[in-house]
């Protein structure tokens, strides 16, 4: 959470009793009609004298259950709303606007002042929780305690008020876009989600596809003919969802997911159509966008529409995923999500330029804990003291996940130049872009299905091996964990990293050169005979298609794409004569290339001639390890100072290792220390 100067407001300490801790609420009232509006407690500058309001901060106990469940005495706290908004940055060269609370001048950001002004205009009265005002931002101890309560606060609020902000130049367009989003979501819920058997029934009956086609027909973009510009303005929707900073704030995820009821506000004028829309309509519109992406209409007249959707959906999908996941979690014996679920679902928003951002990088974790089940929250304490670095927070998360899911979690260990120094190699950096693994990962299906995706440890289950590993004792100052594993090979030769962009004129040629290099490396270490050369096509895709192993999805079509790229299947004479050879190669190899996983990785051949695909930081001599309970092998590097300690570089695909072949002949696991 960011911090602004608290001004001169004299905050009284809050009681932090475990069962019913205190919170502050901002009380908004209006003077009686005809009375003087010059109270020192008014919001300044007032929009006009008729809308002057009085602001006070009061203390209230926060119960464990919603206020509506109390029947014998008045609820404490009283019914209140909670504000979901972006703090915003100060305007250079300008003093921040001020409001007066209990007679004290308190500086606020321009965006918060805009939210309060909008609420004034619609005569909002009652109690409101706002983090910037209700938490003493200058007290790190109080801040840590109150942030830990935020999930509870938003869940208990009678309503969450979402403030998207206001720019006078685009106020009418922004409200119009929000109106379109709300209408699309409401229609999708009524005509698709509301049918018997819900979405599954609608999908089977073709209702989803029919609805998507109707929306596409009425979609308006910059390429739409002027005489047809009546419908849903997707250019304005794109600006609303991609340019408004609210969608990029990590805290908003739990604020709307936990809300019992939420409303989205846009613009200063509450009278404009679309100035206020129920959150459930917005949420269901985001779900609609997912189905629009799944049913693309590739006609040239819709190119612009799908370019907009392709940019919108990856940046808002985490909101729909988290909402659906949290709702399902409430059906289970525990309340809340496992921490891995929420970290994975929100990782889609951490890609470069995507939605999930936090001023304080620790909030990438803290901002999600309100949705997490209690047993996981206890292992990841919220602490804003200077001693609690981002590295220590990621260490705590990594340790908890490694205990629960075992070595499969090592697939998430991706490092960037911004990753905290000193973070152990086994702890994922959840602030890094492109974190979701394309090789390995954690499989949530039954164990039989998981092994179908990879069974490098030959049926070894983490549940059976967890007690033979040492994780809980690891400390940040000595971050050694002990896993059971076995070295099954080492990197013998390495290919170059592939960096060519798909839109480069040399892209297809470079794809072929990359494959040729792998083939040549395998020939040089031809200890396994020529049969391995017939399987080189598996390497760039790590033997995995869109959702299953290559042989399950159809090896023939992938092999066809490989042969086309290698020039072993020539283009038809008609394509050669028309000069369309490149287009033909691109089209014929598309099914194959779209499942490649070669970016940020390098091909290699091990010491006995098995080709593979591993992390780009791998080096000749690095070792290939299979850990007990893992579904894929890993590349590790032995520490020079200690032959018994290793650093994990990342997951790998290795031919003839993915189904336990390396664990034959009496090979057994032993203790391996990972740092």
UniProtKB/TrEMBL annotation:
Signal peptide: none annotated. Residues 80-255 form the Heterokaryon incompatibility domain. Residues 1-20, 29-50 are annotated as: Disordered. InterPro entries: HET, HetReg/Transcr_Mod. This is HET-domain-containing protein. It comes from Parathielavia appendiculata.
